[in-house]
Prior knowledge:
Blueprint: H1 2-34, E1 40-49, E2 58-59, E3 61-62, E4 69-75, H2 76-82, E5 86-90, H3 97-100, E6 104-109, E7 112-117, E8 120-121, E9 125-126, E10 132-138, E11 141-146, E12 149-154, E13 163-164, E14 176-181, E15 188-190, H4 192-219, H5 234-249, H6 256-264, H7 266-269, H8 288-300, H9 304-325, H10 327-330, H11 335-356, H12 363-383, H13 387-402, H14 410-426, H15 430-441, H16 445-452, H17 457-470, H18 480-486, H19 495-520, H20 524-527, H21 530-545, H22 561-582, H23 589-597, H24 600-607, H25 638-658, H26 668-695, H27 701-707, H28 715-718, E16 720-723, E17 729-730, E18 733-735, E19 739-741, E20 744-745, E21 762-764, E22 774-777, E23 780-782, E24 792-799, E25 805-814, E26 817-826, E27 835-838, E28 849-856, E29 864-868, E30 871-872, E31 875-877, H29 878-882, E32 887-889, E33 905-906, E34 909-910, E35 915-919, H30 938-943, E36 945-953, E37 962-968, E38 973-974, E39 978-986
Parallel strand pairs: 2-38, 32-35
Antiparallel strand pairs: 1-14, 1-15, 1-39, 2-13, 3-34, 4-10, 4-14, 5-6, 6-7, 7-8, 7-9, 10-11, 11-12, 16-31, 16-36, 17-30, 18-23, 19-22, 20-21, 21-29, 22-28, 23-28, 24-27, 24-29, 24-30, 25-26, 25-28, 33-34, 35-37, 36-37
Amino acid sequence: MPENDSVARTFTRSSRSAVVLGLVALVSLLLAAAVPVAPVSVEQPRVQWPQSSGYASTSLMLAAYAPAQIDVTVGCDVAAAAGEDATLLRTVPSGDPNEARRGLTISVRDGAIQVSTAGRELDPVPFGDACSLVLHQDRDGLRLDVDGAITSMPGATMPQVDALATDLPADAPAGLTVKVAVDDQFTSSPTALKITLLVLGALAAVAAHLLLRRDDRVHVAPRPVGPRVPRLTLVDVGVVLALVWWTFVAPNTDDDGYYAAMARNVDDTGYVGNYYQMYNQAYTPFTWVWYSLGAWQRLGGDGVVWQRLPILAAGIATWFLVRRYLERRITVDSRARRVGAEVVLAALFLAWWLPYCMGIRPETLSGLGVVVALVLATRTIETGRLAPLAIGFGVASLTFAGHPTGAIAFGPLLLAVPTLWREARRRGAVGTTLGRVAAVLSGGMVAIIAAFADASLRDFIAGQARFADVEEPLDWTDEWNRYRLLMMWDPQGNYAKRVVVLITLVALLWVVLGWVAARSAHRLEELAPQRDRLAAGSLALALVLLWITPSKWSHHFGALAGLGTMVLAAFVLSFWPFAMRWFAGRPPRWFGLAVAGTFIPPVAVGYDAPNIWAYNYMIRVPQAWQAPHLGPLTPSSFVQVALFTLAVAGLAWYLETRRRRPAASLAVPAVLLVVALTGSAVWTLGTLTLATARTTGSWSPSALNLEDPLGTQCAATDGIRVLDTRASTSLPVAAGEPQFDGFTAGGGLYPGVRQPAGIDAVWGSYGVERDASATLVTPWYSLPPAGARDSVVSLLSGVATAPVSVRVEYGRTGSDGVQKVSTENVDSGRGGAWRPLEIGRDAPADANAVRLVAVDPVVGDDDWVAVTAPVNAPARSLTDTVGDAPVVTAWQFSVLFPCLRQPTIDDGIIERPQYVVSWADGEYGDAIFQTGRGGIGTQARRDASTTLLDSQIATSPDIEWGGVHALDYGDLADRAYDITRDRITVNGLADPLARFGG
């Protein structure tokens, strides 16, 4: 009886602990559910214009383009003072009439006030000696009050706001006021109630975990503790050194500049926004990675190497976790064989890691997270303890909160669900079972804190809606696009990315087939070790879980680097023992060759891809844009790969027959796989290392990483040579006067295109009344000596639907004047931006004079051309050219230029940029300059006159590197308005824009 009483008391205590565990876990889950909808404090900025100093047109670039509300008051005294045919207010002062119609315009025409909003014209409103006009517009529509007469336009589209511009002189009578309620809805902070919920939820989750660990100790017998940290080997040192070196010489991943800019602006914006486009939509809930990166940038700067250090740490951690997970696989009786297994594992890991996990993209963290989740899930499966699985659920949730590809981290947890339910059910009744399951799930509280501590559920909903307005999200039926991109002849499908994925897919198929065969033969544990099955199952589930992600780029395969390495290792290290046991020690010779044959297509197709990396100049990279080859050896050739496989098989059969090496032919598939992937890793690391060595002392991204790893010396921008025409000097006139018909001296420019600063003479054909072709012949200008012509440029602008002839004529002065010696036809260009035309670099050595001749054959405003006189522009570095001015740097390579200060987005307002540094050909074709995509550069492009400055990489002038655009806003002042900031409290589902006052 006493013994029975003791057992009963123990059971009662255990039951009570399980009940307490379940209640605490339930509290944590309920608090976690409440956090996203808890109240938040939202900022509401308001702009008021004009300032007390008088009317001054000013830029006001709203990140959301349209305001939450706009209120305009116009008194008739100020309208009368404006005179006839004057604009009182325009919010998009673009020279392009089509763009200007996107805004709000209030003008005086024929004694009446004319209102146009977002392309809709209102009836003219006559004004007398005393009247007033009050306009209010919000998302519900427009309301116009003229002396008490109300006009309503329900559902009227909100106008866009780039500026608050007027034709009124600064000292005009008061009476025009504008109030703009800025859409800054994503800038929020937690209220006291939300902070309380967060703290209590975190404490409850910690308590649930501690109680779960105690529950494990009660119900699971302790196991012998072996060595927890694997010994450090020379292979480990080699992998770490390779990853460290790769941190310096690796090219960028696809969106390094994009993500770095997002993180850099967090402090100013107050939330993680898209920054470059999508109207700076909130990234909720995938934000903690960018908050962390922003803090890391503040700690050590924006240098490429510094920003890669967390990824380096993730790579090292992933390697050691993978090696530890496979420790039983590589522990063999022979030291030489163990070292060989470690070397093979290292090669497989680097083949995955190098092409995908080299920049600051978050897939690397997803790859680490899924490996950690697999390790923890495996520990639960092997020991029956539930606490590791609870931590794994927290890790998986946090991984998913970092990036959508983090969904793959739930794969290993799904494999552990049967163990979770069986073990929880064994420990008690259904109620306590559910409590233990809830305790495991409560580990996800860490993800709720990371995702919604400074955001709300509505931020996620509104952010997704804003994204959907611009771009339709992809769904699971579009998953084929990821593989289509992998097969493209471009950086999305380069050889290193392609070959490792294709080989891994085939290896996964063989591992799964072996698993099925072993199960059907009731020899599962003998033929398919549990850890191999878990790794393969996790990878298979990861491929399925990628289907649910809304983006389908091939670089997302980087999240599979750890799992892919495990599956490749499982095949390489398990195939021989599996076949030996399956065939009772006498496998047929053809079997190894047949399996190896299935790897020939992925090897050949994988290598039939270019050596090209995203947004990399490929300066002196061997075999750039070519499929890898070594002399006549071409791994993209099916024939050569097949011959290599047959040669390995022949050697294996020789060893079997002559050297009595049993079943040596079974090594053929592993040899082919390891050679192919080792070759990919060596070729990737080797070619980019060689390119770095070739460019050391000159200019290349990787060489700059070695020279200036923290980016503090501005070496990248110092290496760009810019001819700044704004500080130019005119060439002296050698002979003649300008001759033109249909051109205007000092004018003839499209509205919004201004005469370039620093240049005195310009001729344009826009708006000139004529009946025939317009012609221009400039005077002859003295050309500097042959060795000093690199800085002579002219500028061109214009739009041509028909051929426009522009040519440069070179001459030689003599006693009888200037004699023409050669002619150079040039591209007249496209668009209204000023474009540089190099003068004299290809001129005859004895030429000492130059002039320009232009012919515009089309009558009308749709075709026009403008030309400036040639000038001598000083050559400066990009660092000296832009100084500390805000620069919109194209996302493709902005991470390379840490000394270019990006414009901030604060209070929902974009800081007005003074320069644009564009990618590749120097054009404005990127999405960040497109109105329909909410690009950060759109408003600057349409409101400023732009001049493309002649620029080049000083040590590699033939490489098309990008373009430097100087912006001229004319009379638009910068920030000539007052701003106030209010805060309101709303619940996590409420629309804060609906709470603006009138």
